[in-house]
Write a structure and sequence with these properties.
The chain is α+β, with helices and mostly antiparallel strands and 348 residues long. It folds into 3 domains: 89 residues, no CATH class; 130 residues, no CATH class; 95 residues, no CATH class. The chain is globular. 35% of the residues are buried.
């Protein structure tokens, strides 16, 4: 995808704005005709739609099924009391002057168009392989023109996985990423994994409030992290080549696959599709297993949360530091080696 296509896909979230509110002075008013909020003592009444009411219920921890059985006035009183008890600043998500959702304060708003501009300058011939929206959060799989073979005929393309929110619901993070061209599988890697921690200054804002990040420190961090993630291709290829040497015996394949599916939260028909692929082309090494899972995140899974969870497991599985912890086979062998120690401890 090109920049214009990404912006078109993200248009529903681009039109949203965040307005801060003070829980100590906020008051929710609900009647049979309408529902709204005064975000601070003496502030004007702001209307919220049904999505906003559901978002408020979720924000204060009250089941929407319960809310539907309450009188509107009762819900307004309960919501007000909980907001006052929280005594925290919070964000009201606005669209066309109406509240459509609520979120916690204290994170980092990132301008979408500026983020795309920076990535376009850092990565040569930038292409946006996939844009995923999860609630108010955006995940961009970005690749450039740099390519390198894992083995002859198996090229992977360098990139970065960039996660952020224009509404400040998560801390921005940037991770190394590689796209396997033979099957367009995208894989995250922990070679570069950075999360931005804002500490104040540089035209941003206090650590305890939300608002656009305009400071030089953030964009310097953003630019360097994208550059380093994109430049990690050689390290990723080296790690993949070492995974090819990690053989998987036929006796261990099924248990390893089931363990990885469980770790990645892949179940139901999605898991069946992966199992069918494993039967057709049995994984003989750790790199084969990696590609089974990356095929699932790239071509089978469609729920944004499931994609993110599986990508995290894949990155750990390919990481030299995390592999032994995340791999069921390695974990099993390690537990077996420790078994005598456990028995002795129990005996004592």
């Amino acid at each position: 995808m090109q920049r214009e296509e990404v912006l078109q896909k993200l248009d529903p979230i681009i039109g949203l704005k965040v307005r801060q509110a003070d829980g100590r002075g906020a008051r929710v008013t609900a009647t049979a005709e309408r529902i709204g909020i005064r975000p601070a003592q003496g502030a004007h009444f702001i209307e919220m739609n049904n999505n906003g009411a559901q978002g408020l219920a979720k924000f204060i921890g009250v089941s929407w099924d319960l809310v539907k059985n309450l009188k509107p006035e009762t819900f307004g009183d309960v919501a007000t009391q909980i907001l006052v008890k929280k005594s925290d600043n919070f964000g009201m998500v606005m669209k066309d002057g109406i509240v459509v959702d609520f979120l916690k304060g204290g994170s980092h708003n990132v301008d979408i168009e500026k983020a795309l501009t920076v990535m376009g300058k850092v990565i040569p011939d930038v292409d946006y392989h996939r844009a995923v929206v999860e609630g108010h959060n955006i995940s961009l799989e970005v690749v450039g023109d740099k390519r390198q073979p894992v083995v002859r005929g198996d090229l992977i393309q360098a990139g970065a996985l960039v996660r952020f929110s224009p509404l400040g619901s998560i801390a921005p993070s940037i991770q190394s990423y590689a796209l396997r061209l033979a099957c367009t599988n995208g894989a995250t890697s922990n070679t570069i994994l950075r999360e931005y921690k804002y500490t104040g200054g540089d035209g941003g804002r206090d650590g305890g409030s939300t608002g656009p990040i305009d400071g030089d420190s953030f964009w310097q961090w953003f630019r360097k992290s994208v550059h380093d993630a994109y430049g990690a291709l050689n390290e990723i290829v080296t790690q993949y080549q070492s995974m090819i040497k990690e053989r998987i015996s036929p006796a261990d394949r099924a248990a390893l696959l089931e363990g990885m599916l469980k770790q990645a939260h892949i179940s139901g028909p999605n898991a069946e599709a992966v199992r069918a692929m494993a039967l057709q082309n049995p994984p003989t090494n750790s790199y084969d297993m990696l590609n089974l899972l990356t095929y699932a995140t790239s071509h089978i899974l469609d729920n944004p949360t499931n994609i993110r969870q599986a990508q995290t497991v894949i990155a750990d599985y390919s990481s030299e530091e995390e592999h032994a912890r995340i791999c069921p086979l390695c974990h099993s062998k390690r537990s077996q080696r420790k078994a005598p120690v456990i028995i002795d401890a129990q005996a004592n």
